[in-house]
Amino acid sequence: MYSTTDLQLFIHTADLGSLSKAARQLDLLPATASASLKRLEQQLNARLFVRSTRSMRLTPEGSMFLDYSRQALALLNEGQALLNADGPVSGHLRLSMPSDVGRNVLLPWLDAFQARHPQVTLSLQFSDRVIDLFRDPVDVAFRYGPLDDSTLVSQVLAASRRVVVAAPSYLAKHGRPQAPKDLSSHNCLLYYLQHGLFNNWRFYSGKTAIDVKVRGDRMSDDASIARAWAVAGIGIAYKSWLDVRQDVAAGRLEILLEQFGGEDTPLNMVYPHRSSMSPSLRALLAFLREQFAALKLPQ
Questions:
Q1: Are residues 168 and 256 in the same domain?
Q2: 299, part of any domain
Q3: Does 11 fall in a domain?
Q4: Total structural domains in the chain?
Q5: Mind listing the pLDDT tens digit of every residue in the chain (299 residues)?
Q6: Does residue 298 fall inside a structural domain?
Q7: Domain end: 83, 117, 144, which one?
Q8: Domain limits at 184?
Q9: Which of 99, 175, 216, 255 could staple 188 via S-S, CB 3.0–4.6 A?
């Protein structure tokens, strides 16, 4: 019989490439972690890792056993979730989310979720940086757009797309762009994404992509600042509809270039593997889908 702790340690070590990092995440002493991995290898009569001074790399046998280990823990978690389905949802979730949608959309919903499930505790991280779910102490991340990492499990929460917005005060002073190319003569508000400064804005005319390289007098590593600058009448922003929908509804911002399609930016809930789907996470996913379903999302 294999210990679930041994399997969890094995999976974390494979994901992180380090036994010591895996031990810290699972709150195990280094000696305990080393003994756990040795015990698992003895039970299997196989070597799971090639060890070096800097990292641990899976052997072919380790790669094969990793898939089965993930499936085994996923089944155990599903069984536990079924047993606890009639009881109160509890547990601790560590969440990472983009700054703007996190503060203005998700935060009040998360407060309502905890009011419904008071035995759930949350740790929240607001950042536009794409965190590494295998290395950072985060259970779930909310991300915009298609995923670069196919090893992650993704649940789509809401469709969305980028829209060009500006305040009425800015438009009164500087005029309204009529085509994407007109943006080159406007002050565009920039922010940083995973691959650097987001200053190449893509639009669509039918199926034809139109790329425009824009410039502006200010930029930030926090995309919510770009929205705040736009509301203040400083320039034009290119943001997800979910980020600016309340400002548009209140008249603080106006959508521009509506005859051109913006980039699709679906909001996803992402986690490392299906064994991460605890009862509390399952309840959160269902709750958020209820909230997003009530919104009138753009087509």
A1: yes
A2: no
A3: yes
A4: 3
A5: 678 888 889 988 888 888 988 888 888 898 998 999 999 999 899 999 988 777 788 998 988 888 788 877 776 766 666 555 556 788 889 999 998 899 989 999 999 999 999 999 999 998 887 777 777 778 888 988 876 666 678 888 888 899 999 999 999 999 999 999 999 999 999 998 877 899 999 999 988 999 999 999 999 988 899 999 999 999 999 999 999 999 999 999 999 999 999 998 889 888 876 556 778 888 898 899 889 888 766 55
A6: no
A7: 83
A8: 162-262
A9: 216
179 contact partners, CB below 8 Å, separation of at least 6? 257, 260
169 located within any domain = yes
| Cβ-proximal residues to 297 (8 Å cutoff; 6+ apart), any chain | 158, 159, 160, 241
Is there a single domain that holds both residue 79 and residue 128?
A: no
Residues 6+ apart with CB under 8 A from 278: 77, 81, 91, 93
Count how many Cα atoms sit within 13 Å of the Cα of residue 38 in the half-sphere of its side chain: 6
